[in-house]
């Protein structure tokens, strides 16, 4: 079947098998930040945004994304760099394997908090939002510190 999908503002038209997963479509087109960590919709590593909403691309058929706009980490380099510096300062990047999915979810969470007018989220709200992103190295304390500081930075949540 033919699909037309915009990825990071670039139009892509492709003929795909009906059972092609979105993660495989994205990697086929060179978006290698999208990685497979589990294949059971458990680790969050394959997170991308469809119309600004985070989804697990290992659990979505490409056909379902037909006509939509997808954002991957490659399309959020500037925002990712800013957050990445907070992660580095807090020692929240060890092997770095979880980082792409984690960064996508944090940036989506920030947008959602802004939409809902949440200017001072609690650790509990943050942890609930990110419960689908697994990290096998850090124990999450450094992640939480980095996120709290990132959201409170000058120009952060308003
Ligand atoms: S690869 Fe998609 S959730 Fe793990
Ligand atoms: S830093 Fe290694 S999995 Fe998160």
Describe the structure.
The protein is α+β, with helices and mostly antiparallel strands and 158 residues long. It folds into 2 domains: 2-74, Beta-grasp domain (Ubiquitin-like (UB roll), Roll), CATH 3.10.20; 77-152, DNA polymerase, domain 1 (Orthogonal Bundle). The protein is built from 5 helices and 5 strands; from the N terminus they run ββαβββαααα. A 5-stranded mixed sheet has the order 2-1-5-3-4, covered by helices on one side. Strand 1 and strand 2 form a beta hairpin. Helix 2 (77-89) crosses helix 5. It is globular and about 45 Å long. The mean pLDDT is 93. The chain binds FE2/S2 (inorganic) cluster (FES) (2 copies). Keywords: 2Fe-2S, Iron, Iron-sulfur, Metal-binding, Oxidoreductase. Residues 1-76 form the 2Fe-2S ferredoxin-type domain.
């Amino acid at each position: 079947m033919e699909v037309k999908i915009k990825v990071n503002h670039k139009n892509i038209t492709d003929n795909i098998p009906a059972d092609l997963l979105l993660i495989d479509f994205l990697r086929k087109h060179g978006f290698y930040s999208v990685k497979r960590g589990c294949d059971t919709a458990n680790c969050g590593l394959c997170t991308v945004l469809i119309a600004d909403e985070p989804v697990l691309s290992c659990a979505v058929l490409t056909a379902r994304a037909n006509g939509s706009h997808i954002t991957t980490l490659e399309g959020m380099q500037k925002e990712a760099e800013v957050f990445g510096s907070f992660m580095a300062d807090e020692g929240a990047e060890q092997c770095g394997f979880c980082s792409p999915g984690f960064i996508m979810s944090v940036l989506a969470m920030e947008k959602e908090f802004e939409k809902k007018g949440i200017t001072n989220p609690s650790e509990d709200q943050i942890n609930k939002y990110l419960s689908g992103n697994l990290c096998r190295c850090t124990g999450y304390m450094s992640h939480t510190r980095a996120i709290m500081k990132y959201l409170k930075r000058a120009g952060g949540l308003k």
